[in-house]
Specification:
alpha+beta, 7-stranded mixed sheet, two-stranded antiparallel sheet
């Protein structure tokens, strides 16, 4: 089940490489946190995607958006991603559990070669308000077709300038009749 905008996101605590932990139970006092789920160290597309976010980090910070990237990788694999991909400025979390993946409605894949972990999450983005409610979500079932980081930045600028509300909140819409 996917998370619906304007509802509370599931509780999630992540170990981070650059500090102790990040948690949805202790969100920053910034207007938003952008949780960037990436596939892991084995994914070359994730490398370029996370670098794009890091390159825009100052612009996100100027809008008071905290960026947190996370995967199911072990600490060692997350450190390799950080070091080999030159992601020293981006907050990188690791150790997403299978329960976390299920709670957040992520697409999950089985590794198909020796480079991939046995199980890992496919990409997703979650723009979370400081009260823990979901504002925006984008789910991918494979590494391709992700929203561009610049588009996400432009979205936040528009939302802030126009006081635009979260959309997509009507979970049961397709199950009801419209008269």
């Amino acid at each position: 089940m996917r998370i619906i905008p304007q509802t509370q996101v599931p509780s999630l605590t992540l170990d981070l490489l650059h500090r102790e932990q990040w948690s949805t139970d202790a969100l920053a006092s910034t207007p938003y946190t952008l949780l960037i789920i990436y596939r892991g160290y084995h994914c070359p597309i994730c490398k370029s995607y996370l670098k794009e976010f890091q390159n825009l980090q100052n612009e996100f910070n100027n809008l008071s958006v905290q960026l947190v990237a996370a995967s199911a990788d072990t600490r060692e694999r997350a450190e390799r991603s950080r070091d080999e991909w030159a992601l020293q400025k981006l907050a990188i979390g690791y150790g997403l559990s299978e329960k976390d993946m299920k709670d957040w409605g992520l697409y999950v894949s089985r590794g198909i070669n020796e480079k991939e972990p046995k199980i890992f999450a496919e990409p997703a983005l979650f723009l979370i308000q400081p009260d823990g409610h979901l504002f925006y979500a984008a789910y991918n079932s494979m590494p391709f077709g992700r929203p561009r980081p610049q588009d996400i930045l432009d979205m936040v600028k528009f939302v802030e300038a126009e006081d635009y509300p979260a959309r997509g909140e009507m979970r049961d819409f397709l199950l009801t009749k419209i008269h």
